[in-house]
Design goal:
By secondary structure, this protein is α/β, with parallel strands linked by helices. It is built from ten helices and six strands, in the order αααββααβαβααββαα. It is rod-shaped, with a radius of gyration of 45 Å.
């Protein structure tokens, strides 16, 4: 501003500038901002230290069900193969811990009848009465079986190999609710059943129901294969209806009677 301007003129000039919108103080001379010192660049953040925490361990992969079953079957074969007689086989079966059916069973149902009998009957699995008493075929189906055997001169309590029978099941433990055994349970117990037949060494084997046929023959469909002699377990095998099925389907007793006569004829040496 001109220093020769008197006070009144300077005030009037200031008021005019304020009214014009110039309400900020300015320097007396222009400012060259390019000559000003540049601000220092912001400091880069220090690199963080590497994470020193231990790595989180990875959760192990879930075991493969197929590998578990294979290991369980291998253990069953080892135990069954080590048995040299029926008592040691029963002990090996009782010591086997891979089949969970054992956890809910009262007894290990091994066998009944005469081990020296010419006929060995293989059923499915224990029911309620069998689980309580520890013997196969002692419930209503077992009572019908006894009458069927008596009709052709056989008896589980008879002495002598020609009249006696020997009875066991595919599974020694009762499935919950008497359900049908599944494929893994059959696979685990099959080595014990095969060894059971080897040690008992019957002349003839009767498979009663679909589950024994599935285990021994690898196929079911009892209505199609019953009454037909098949070579399995190194001996003649006869599929038949299970007595429990006959209690539900009495009309099927005619086919069961024909199968019993076929069994009697084999025992007597007829063709």
């Amino acid at each position: 501003m001109d220093s020769d301007m008197d006070w009144h003129a300077a005030r009037a000039a200031l008021e005019w500038q304020i009214e014009a919108g110039a309400d900020e103080a300015m320097l007396d001379a222009p400012l060259n901002r390019y000559d000003l010192a540049q601000p220092a660049p912001a400091a880069s953040p220090a690199p963080s230290a590497p994470d020193q925490r231990p790595p989180v361990p990875m959760r192990p992969a879930a075991p493969d069900p197929g590998e578990q079953l294979a290991a369980a079957v291998a253990e069953a074969r080892r135990l069954a193969g080590s048995a040299t007689d029926l008592p040691s086989l029963a002990a090996a079966m009782g010591a086997y811990g891979h089949c969970e059916l054992k956890l809910g069973a009262r007894n290990t149902v091994f066998s009944d009848g005469d081990p020296a009998a010419r006929v060995m009957i293989i059923g499915e699995a224990p029911g309620r009465e069998e689980d309580i008493r520890g013997k196969p075929f002692v419930g209503a189906a077992g009572q019908l079986l006894d009458r069927m055997l008596d009709a052709i001169g056989l008896d589980r309590s008879a002495g002598g190999a020609d009249r006696a029978v020997y009875i066991t099941n595919v599974l020694p433990w009762r499935p919950p609710g008497n359900r049908t055994p599944d494929a893994s349970e059959i696979a685990m117990m099959l080595p014990f059943l095969e060894r059971h037949v080897e040690l008992a060494a019957p002349d003839l084997v009767v498979l009663m129901g679909n589950t024994p046929c599935q285990a021994v023959l690898g196929r079911a469909g009892i209505t199609r294969i019953r009454g037909t002699w098949i070579e399995a377990l190194s001996r003649p095998v006869l599929p038949m209806f299970h007595p429990a099925y006959l209690l539900r389907q009495p009309l099927a007793k005619r086919e069961a009677w024909a199968d019993l006569l076929s069994l009697r004829a084999r025992l007597d040496g007829a063709d």
